[in-house]
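new request in #modeling-help
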Amino acid sequence: MISQNALHHAEKCRFCWMCRHLCPVQHQTGREVNTPRAKGLLLSMANKGTQPFDKDMAQAMYECLLCDACTNDCATGYQPPLFIREARTEAVVNELAPEAVMKLIDNALETGNIYGVEKPSYGQDGTDVLVYIGEVAAIQVPQMAKNLLAVLKKAGVSAKVLANEPASGVMLGDLMGYTEEVRQQAKACADAINAAGLPVVVLDSYDAEIMKQKYPEWGCEIKTDVTTATAYVAKLIASGKLEAKAGTGVQGACHDDDRLARTFHEFAPIRAMAKAAGYEVGEMFSREKLAKSCGTAVAYGYMPALVEKIAASRWEDLKRSGCAAMLTASPQAYLCLSLCVPEGKALVDLYAALV
Amino acid sequence: MQDKSLMFYMIRSELEDAVGAENVSTREMERAVYSVDYFWLSRKWQDAGETGPMPDIVVRPGSAEEVSKVLKIANYYKIPVTTWGGGSGSQGGALPVAGGILLDIKRMDKVIDINVEAGYVTCETGIIFATLEERVNELGYSIMHLPSCLTCCTVGGALAHNGIGILSTKYGKMDDMCLSLEVALPNGDIINTLPVPKHSSGPNLIPLFVGSEGTLGIMTKAKFKIVKQPEVRTHHAFLFPDIHTGYQACREIVQAVKPSIIRLFDEAETVSIIKKIIGFAKKGSFMNLTLEGYEKIVEAEKEIVLSIAEKYHAEYLGNEYGEKWFENRITFFYPDHIMDLPQMFGTLDTVATHDNIEKIYWAMKHAVEDGFGEYGVRFISHSSHWYEWGAMNYSRFIIDNPPEDPEEALRLHNRIWNAGVRAALANGGVLNDHHGVGLKLSRLVKEQYGPALQVLQALKKELDPNGILNPYKMGL
């Protein structure tokens, strides 16, 4: 079944409850099976032969955002997403994955994205940096992609975007684990980026994560610098290439997206962007490394109702903070948070605010 | 209940009508995760490839009214109902050993009201305690209930076994913090305790349910007092020559001032766990102490504490180790930091008056070490909750290489528990301080109460004549 390493993590998590309070899925459903410990326990039971790894168990493995809040909390360093992701591979290989998931996988294998559509081209030639747009922004949140490009132009940065930008592999990797198919997508993406020979600015932190963490492991390292768009734009602000705007008089709180917060521990840039955009920066109680997830584009693809509830819960956090606006520079967060903007509150694309 | 019978499906459809079909499950995978809680034996069972106790149906009510409907159905058909909050209890109290309905209350997770002026918060009992605490923290307040299971237990679970947190010496335990309760009785009636916990208007109903482990009713809402976060919180550490002087000094301290934390470790725990986590490596009895509140008062309390510690020849270790302990207070409980299988272990916590607590320490230590030396048992202990009148011991036994066979392990496990608990009972202690009775200690309840047990039995018989609530637990 799953690897010995993943099983070791599952066995360690099966009797540990310490991170359950941070699981956004468990918070919404209240189901015991939606806790990291239950998923570890089920895989341990499957390994011991006391429970079958069947469609029900496979379904449980997909009721997770892979937001990494559990890993971030673990004082020892155990990683539930490690065994959950491998269990997803097992589910796909044995044709046990939910139908809705399989449809997304088929789409991603065919087109590189879960939507099964041709990715719009943002192709433009530039000489300073290569901007990697990613599937979610390109297809679901196109205005954010355009706004980032506009911000770079305003700062005098000559940006290139690949005409036929290949998928990074992150969508497929979250859906079926790190299989050979994912590695092939990654390799094609890395080859295209390397051919451009420019430093890379990545709009979606999910793409940035796989590029920076998995590509080197898979022997397809990107040879130029890979920077998150938020970090890059914050540097433009700090260097004076992007001027701060006048105060809006609006207090906003930054949503720290899952992978930016927990993979890259990157919190300051988005706040610098918010300040430069003229917002008074407030804070939600759950923030930075402990920020509650608001959902992901992939999870929204196969469990939209649950993701909407998770996003609504994040809006509740904002309401209690007293802030009027939710500020984000993440296409995935923007997509999920836009599902349920409460009356009297605003969802702000920080790139748009900086143009 | 007999699975796959006509009646099974009839009852399931009634339950679905009560709470919604999406909140009722008979799927094996969903039921299996309730077969293991934090009880060592349930873990051992699973680890050995055995199947633990599973419910027939998982029911997840979203309100007190839905709990009431479920109980009416269960009471009519005489179906066992075991309530599950976080499942993080160490006594097997949430294990569905009689099958039937597993009532998972985590959908009941609303914060109903926070009133900082009056100083209380009201919530549903399925909320994870850490989530409730965060909501209060957002406003600069705290319930001051910070147990090691803060992040995983529900409010209902903490109330059910009358839990305690690390700040208890100043702020008390669950029964000190709870102001009122809403409870669903086994017949489905929803009752409220009186609006306040202190009065002369008849017996207080709160203690009937707090600590009753789901055997007398299901607590559905609770009101707790909240307090402002302290102006200062200062941590200190001391080293006493031995546990005896430590006990004496701590008694004198809690009879003079009000620290929030006092943790006195015996010499064995000082050289093992404290060394591992805090990095302090000296022989003697380590003690960390925390003072908090208004700075002026804390300063005055510190002077008194230092003078008492000096009187008992304690070495003052300054702030560093106390701060380290506080920073790592939860680290102790993560995998690889806490005992784990294949080890056998258990926490024989008990509480007694000051004149008995040290006697219990030695009696329990001898009972465990002398009685089970052939298994290479180790005994470590600390005292972490103190009152003007007494203190508790958090004594633990550890066997690194217990029998592999689960049945043989169960026998040894229960023999050690019997010996340890009887040593406490014989010297003025009780079955347990703050983890509860559950399945683990149920058999010993009669020994503890003696003829007084009839009071509890009468209550149980009157409130739950069909015995549906949490069967085989608490000796009821």
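bot summary: Chain B has four domains: 6-105, 111-228, 232-333, 344-440.
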